[in-house]
Recover the amino acids of this structure.
C-alpha cells in the first residue's frame, strides 16, 4: 500500500482505500480494489483530493499500521460538524449541537487511546470540499494526539484540577473542533479571496475569535471557550485579539506567556500546522517537512517550548507510505517514523537510481538514523534539503539529552 499524489496516478494503479465523496464522506466516489479510471483523475484534482492509497505488492504490511477505523472516526466527527454548521448557515437560530459533537469526540478519543498507530501516523481529511469543516476536524484530531503526549504537563499546568480531570482531553477536542466557528460571521468575499487581504479585510478576519467566542459562550465550559478566543495568541505575547479586545470576564487570561491556557497553547500548533499543509483558495498545500521547518524558524517564539517539543516528536516530517528520493538516487517509501530523528525515518527501497525495481524490497530496508551518509533529498519532485537543516540540528540536541 502506497501514498500516491493524484497527479502521479498511473494507468493500472489499483486503489487500496476507497475515495470518499466530498459532499458525503460515508459514500464513496471510488471503491477499493478497482483500477483508477484515468479520465477521472482531473475530477479528483478538482475536488481537492491530494493523494490516494494504491496497492503495492511489497508494501501490504502497511495495512496493519494504517487502521482504517481511524478514518471512519474522523469522518463521523466531520459529518457532525458539517451538518450542524450548514444548518446554522441556513438558519441563524439553529443552535450548536454539543451533544453530537461530544459523542463523536468521545468515540474518536476512545479509539486513539486503544490503538498503537496514532503516535506514528497522522491522517488528514484533505479530500473534503469545505475547508472550515475539514480543518476543524483535523485540528481536533491533531490536538488530541498532542494532548495524549502531554499528560504529565497537563497535570502540572492545570493544578486546580484533579490529575484525572487535568488530563481529560474532551474539552480540548471540543474547543479545537469549534475554534474557527467565528469565521461563519466573516463575509465569504473575505474568506475566499484568492489574493492578499487589505488592511480593513485583515482587521475583520482577525475578529473571528471574538465572533466565535460570542457564539459559544454559555454553551460549553470555559476551557473550550478559551480555545475559541485564544487560538491565535502566541507564547511571546503577540497575536490577536489584542488585550483591549477581550471581553471583561475573569475566565479570560492576559495574552502572554503562561497566562495563555494550556489547551490554547496546544491548539495554536495544531491550527497552524493543518492550515499550512492544506490547500486553500490563496495557497497550495505545503509538504509536512516544509511546514515543520517554517514552524521552527519563521514561528520562533510563538509556541510553548514543552508543547513544541512534543509536537515535533508526534508529527512526522515524512508520512508513512510517502515516496521519497534518497541522496544516492534510490527511490524509497517511508515505512516507520523515528520521533528522535524526525527527518531520518526508516525506508524501504523501491527502485535503483536508473529506475530498476529492487527484486526483494523487504530486504532493502534502511534506517536513516543509522546511515548518516544518506538523507532524503526530494519528495514528489520537490527538493526538501532546504528544510532539513533546522530539523537536523534539533535532532542533534535530542541526541545529547
Amino acid at each position: 500500500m502506497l501514498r500516491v499524489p493524484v497527479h502521479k496516478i498511473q494507468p493500472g494503479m489499483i486503489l487500496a482505500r476507497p475515495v470518499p465523496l466530498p459532499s458525503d464522506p460515508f459514500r464513496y466516489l471510488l471503491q477499493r480494489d478497482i483500477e483508477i479510471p484515468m479520465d477521472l483523475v482531473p475530477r479528483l484534482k478538482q475536488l481537492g483530493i491530494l493523494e490516494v492509497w494504491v496497492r503495492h505488492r511489497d508494501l501490504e504490511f502497511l495495512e496493519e499500521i494504517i487502521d482504517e477505523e481511524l478514518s471512519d472516526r474522523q469522518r463521523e466527527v466531520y459529518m457532525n460538524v458539517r451538518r450542524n454548521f450548514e444548518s446554522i448557515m441556513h438558519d441563524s437560530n439553529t443552535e450548536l449541537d454539543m451533544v453530537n459533537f461530544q459523542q463523536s469526540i468521545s468515540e474518536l478519543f476512545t479509539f486513539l487511546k486503544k490503538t498503537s498507530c496514532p503516535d506514528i501516523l497522522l491522517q488528514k481529511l484533505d479530500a473534503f470540499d469545505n475547508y472550515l469543516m475539514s480543518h476543524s476536524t483535523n485540528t481536533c484530531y491533531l490536538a488530541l494526539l498532542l494532548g495524549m503526549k502531554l499528560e504529565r504537563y497537563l497535570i502540572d499546568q492545570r493544578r486546580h484540577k484533579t490529575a484525572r480531570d487535568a488530563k481529560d482531553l474532551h474539552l480540548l477536542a471540543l474547543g479545537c473542533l469549534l475554534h474557527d466557528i467565528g469565521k461563519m460571521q466573516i463575509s465569504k468575499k473575505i474568506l475566499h479571496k484568492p489574493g492578499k487581504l487589505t488592511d480593513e479585510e485583515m482587521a475583520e478576519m482577525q475578529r473571528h475569535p471574538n465572533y466565535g467566542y460570542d457564539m459559544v459562550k454559555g454553551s460549553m465550559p470555559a476551557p473550550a471557550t478559551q480555545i475559541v478566543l485564544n487560538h491565535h495568541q502566541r507564547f511571546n505575547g503577540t497575536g490577536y485579539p489584542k488585550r483591549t479586545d477581550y471581553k471583561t470576564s475573569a475566565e479570560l487570561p492576559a495574552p502572554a506567556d503562561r497566562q495563555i491556557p494550556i489547551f490554547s497553547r496546544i491548539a495554536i500548533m495544531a491550527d497552524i500546522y493543518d492550515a499550512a499543509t492544506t490547500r486553500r483558495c490563496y495557497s497550495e498545500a505545503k509538504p509536512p517537512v516544509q511546514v515543520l521547518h517554517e514552524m521552527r524558524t519563521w514561528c520562533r517564539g510563538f509556541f510553548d517550548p514543552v508543547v513544541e517539543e512534543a509536537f515535533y516528536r508526534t508529527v512526522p516530517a515524512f508520512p508513512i507510505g510517502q515516496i521519497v528520493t534518497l541522496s544516492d538516487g534510490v527511490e524509497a517509501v517511508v515505512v516507520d517514523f523515528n520521533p528522535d530523528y524526525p527527518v531520518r525515518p526508516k525506508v524501504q527501497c523501491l527502485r535503483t537510481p536508473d529506475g530498476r525495481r529492487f527484486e526483494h524490497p523487504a530486504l532493502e530496508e534502511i534506517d536513516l538514523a543509522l546511515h548518516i551518509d544518506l538523507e532524503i533529498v526530494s519528495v514528489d519532485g520537490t527538493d526538501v534539503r532546504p528544510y532539513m537543516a533546522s530539523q537536523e540540528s534539533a535532532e542533534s540536541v535530542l541526541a545529547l539529552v
User: Anything to note?
Assistant: The chain has a mean pLDDT of 84. The first helix runs from residue 41 to 46. Residues 2-55 form a domain with the Molybdopterin biosynthesis moea protein, domain 2 fold (CATH 3.90.105.10). DSSP finds 16 helices and ten strands in the chain.
